Amino acid sequence: MLESRTRGALLCLGLLSLGGSLRAKSLSRRINSIETSNNGSTFVWTIEDTYSSENFFQLFNFFTGSDPTQYVALFYTDATTAFADGLAYVDGGVVVMKGDNTTQLAQGQFRNSVRVSSQKQYNTGLFILDVLRAPWGCGVWPAWWTLGGGIWPSTGEIDIIEGVHDNEHNQVTWHTGPNCTMTPTNNMTGSIVDINGQPNYDCNGSDNDNSGCGVTEWSRASYGPTFDAQGGGVFAMKWDEDGIAVWSFYRAAVPQDVVDGQPTPSTWGDPVAVLLPGGCDPITNFVNHSIIFDITFCGDWAGNTYNFTNCPGTCPEQLMNGSNFVNASWNINSLQVYRKQTLQGVISNGAHPDHILFRFHAWLQYLLAVILATVIVHYY
């Protein structure tokens, strides 16, 4: 009888120890996600909002009408039309938004497409998009971006994913009011976009034909057919008092901390692009931003650059055949927005209390398991 009780107690001890070990590992991952700001404060990124197939279309509004840029050849549909025509739907847990790829048009007619913006506005955050497919193709100009409330560009615009035609490289761009410039740095992997043969550091959206200050990512897995072919990936934009930075990861290279929902940007290496606070205040120049996904056809960028590509004919001619746009589709797994949770009293006597906390937690789990096992043996 005693032997049976002992085995039961040991089994209980083992299960409790296993539970403690799993909780300790979870705590360890959380500890490893602790970050430090440039001002010395410590924090973790905690989830604020998750947009997925369960709620995406309830939390984004459809923009209707023509695109506000020039030379466009599309019409953004309302929600009812988009759902009825198969331009917006959920497929197996994936959010899908695309341009019309079936209708044959006469020259000069507009092709239907989709543009949505989040109902919620943000002022700083960590935005992580897991996307299976992003739009591309001749005459296509898609973007994932954020736009400030008020008069453009005084409250800022951040283009996180943007490209045209069959490009293979993503471009990150900031558009602001005056007095905002990029600070030259070696701590990013992209290249600053040239204007007239010189790197353009001026982010003022009213200068240089509204071009803003852009950075080209040179990975072929960041945009276009290669990005889609290898299963898409993850894009992240960190916006806080230390600046605005963008990373991209192809599917096989997504960091484990992102997968675990405990993102730690300081471990991701240099970003693709970064706008540092020394030349541009990231708080005052970017205000009340909504998140936007769109698929534009032709337009300022795609229309003006069409003749410099390998695409056939002209952009208006390309637009007539719906089958030219089978790749003009956003297929989104999720979009998560994290906010900073500041930690208090992080440094004490030169020791980092996260290590102390971890050791104490593990010791406490073991102690409780021993006490409970002893009680079982004694009373049963």
From TrEMBL:
GO molecular function per UniProt: hydrolase activity, hydrolyzing O-glycosyl compounds
Any one biological process term the GO annotation gives: glucan catabolic process
Signal peptide: 1-24
Annotated Pfam families: GH16_XgeA
Transmembrane parts of this sequence: 360-379
Residue ranges constituting the GH16 domain according to the UniProt record: 35-310
Keywords in alphabetical order: Hydrolase, Membrane, Signal, Transmembrane, Transmembrane helix
UniProt protein name: Glycoside hydrolase family 16 protein
SUPFAM superfamilies listed in its UniProt record: Concanavalin A-like lectins/glucanases
